[in-house]
Specification:
heterodimer; A: 262 residues; mainly alpha; 0% strand; B: 257 residues
Amino acid sequence: MLTNARIFFVGGLLSYRSLFDWLSPWILVPSLLVSPICQVLLFAYIGRGAGVGNDEFYVIGNALSYAAIPCLFAMGATIEGERWGQTLGIVLATPARRIPLFLGRSLPVIVNGWFVAIVGILAGVVLLHTSIPAHSWPALLVAVAVASTSCTGLGLAMGAVTLRVRQGAVFGNVLFCVLLVFSGVNVSLDQLPTWMARIGSWLPLSHAIEAARGIADGESLVEVGGLLLDELGIAVLYAVLGLVLLRFFEDESRRRATLDRM
Amino acid sequence: MRGVLRQLWVCYRIQLKVISSDWFDGVLAVFFPLMFATAALLVYRVNGDPAAMQYVGLGAAIMGMWTCQGVIASSLLSRERWAGTLELVVATPVSMTRVLVPTTLALSTVGLYCVVATYLWERWVFGLELQVLSWPLFVVAVLLTALTLATFGFFLSVTAVRYRVSWSLGAALEYPGWLLCGFVVPLAILPAWTHPLSWAIPTTWGMAAVRDAASGASPWSNLALCAAVGIGYAAVAAWLGKVLVESARRHASLSLR
């Protein structure tokens, strides 16, 4: 039990610090601070130009959507990075249990995603004068954490696939774009074509964004609890899928001796 | 002269092959702005105003050119550094300008793929047929925009030579460029302090020229400004290229990662 906890917390943190090389300020500032702010501004102005929605709608949607970037890329990096570091074989040869080993890597990633989304929301408040009631903030922080968790679940599944697919950066960007278009980030699900809304409701972010918008409009955590539970369900779904895929691709790569192939 | 043209052509052709067959630089550079164009079109479609859809449709078609140039050009020299070929590029008797300009022209060519892909996407997926009153002028405006973007990309690639992770800088330029060039947001609704920044980017004038050509107005004044700003960037980049490479040689920092 203690070993598993140590693998989960200490192993996860060490892996995150050593493999997510975006922590360098030269990458972190432009990628995880400047870009989310710019995406929020871009779509808030698109909304103004189109005369659709209000700033708060785009601030919440895009700030939460940008949490997907660190969640997808950091999870990809903590798995694919092992290959580049030529340590993947060692990691998979250890007797450590896979669940604490890989889920532990997701905890710092969730915190990172949460931080990036909050930066985006704060930028909206400061630069666009978006008004969010003071009493809504605690619930909003919870909703953002749930969004970040579900994106990390998807990131785990993506990381598993990068055991086979070598183009992790391309794959991460494609998933980010899919979330942007399908998850109700800039157009709410009820205004999207039905088939897109159906897909969106099975993707991370869509329920959390709807909940966060409700909270920003004054709803309580209890009132949006159902949406957040749905989002957590999606987080679990993708995390389980990720763990299953990890096991599958690990077995496949052992059988085909493709583990370290670049 | 023939030798110069041959070198430029060979460099352009090789780089175009390398870039367009790369998943990140070729495929994603078209897909990523296409998805953002889709998001913008979905927002504008909520009100369904045909004039607004024409406005965003034209801008969305051009905005991919910015992605191809801004994101990838910033990291051109870093990529040479990672590949271990930067010293070779610098040591060749051909000036760095003659190596980088064909490369950024190749990036602009990928940007033209984006224009065509987005045009077809808008037509087939959104049922949006762009109204272009003067196709010859429209094509001239698009080509000149691509050409001046190549000079801007040349400027970016040179100025980022000392920034070891310049890809992140290039990625951070993507959204500001989409905002400031007036692709999907009218410049008039941006804060006044951003207007000089917009005017300093050749693509802003190129985009205005494309809109002029599409609406039947004369695009020549905007094209002249687009060309003038582009030439300015090319001149500054050529000078900076010499200075920065000399400095990197003197400090033996060319290959430092």
